[in-house]
Amino acid sequence: xxxxxxxxxxxxxxxxxxxxxxxxxxxxxxxxxxxxxxxxxxxxxxxxxxxxxxxxxxxxxxxxxxxxxxxxxxxxxxxxxxxxxxxxxxxxxxxxxxxxxxxxxxxxxxxxxxxxxxxxxxxxxxxxxxxxxxxxxxxxxxxxxxxxxxxxxxxxxxxxxxxxxxxxxxxxxxxxxxxxxxxxxxxxxxxxxxxxxxxxxxxxxxxxxxxxxxxxxxxxxxxxxxxxxxxxxxxxxxxxxxxxxxxxxxxxxxxxxxxxxxxxxxxxxxxxxxxxxxxxxxxxxxxxxxxxxxxxxxxxxxxxxxxx
Length: 308
Fold this sequence. Notes:
Largest sheet: 6 strands, parallel
Radius of gyration: 19 Å
Number of domains: 2
Strand content: 15-25%
Number of helices: 9
Strand order of the largest sheet: 3-2-1-4-5-6
CATH class of the largest domain: Alpha Beta
Number of strands: 14
Distance between the termini: 40 Å
CATH superfamily of the largest domain: Lactate dehydrogenase/glycoside hydrolase, family 4, C-terminal
């Protein structure tokens, strides 16, 4: 049986680490693509040489040519310039719009039946760009942000309560930016809401830290995070390739759900072999709904600027 094929566009920290984790888990063969000559080839060769020690037989190849991505089941777009200190995700808008548009055009030619996962920032506007440019069904163009933002929230809850992160579930909704909406009422430890376990001030502090989790790392490293983002990509790849039907927060194209229309925003979805198979509508308080609409409005400002 032929192995599945995942192409990762952008061989920087996020793309290369995602590629590493996909082959480590033997989820698929990986094609790593970058415009810089030698970089994807070198990283792919380095990873291929670690296979005998790590014990995986998934193949990884590096290339500067989109034709090598032909017939991919999933294409992950990480290409774009990363954030530098003092930059907001939105500062990246114009440059990354051009990059994501160009990449999507090539991807569609090579793999017309693939599912696209967009990681480039500003996330919600970039996934909307890929959706418009690809003309794919909305369920086959997905933004990776909620899995990451929720993982950060879960990590902070685990640190605070000193419990296993495996016990912790949490949701972060909205755009992937300063207006994202952590939902403490839906954050649980072994089914117990964190609102029963922690005082409000602590929860507010953790929610705020989750909201600024990316900026906190940019400040420390002078560049964007890559370990947790790549893990988030790989979870989505695993769920899609293995048709797991997991409910995860992802950027999805809303057509009236949550009172939002014609916009990519982070919400809980059922993810499976066909991509986004269902948008899950959870009940929100007036305050939560207002925060989600404020976040959607911030996304809309960006999509209006680039005309998507």
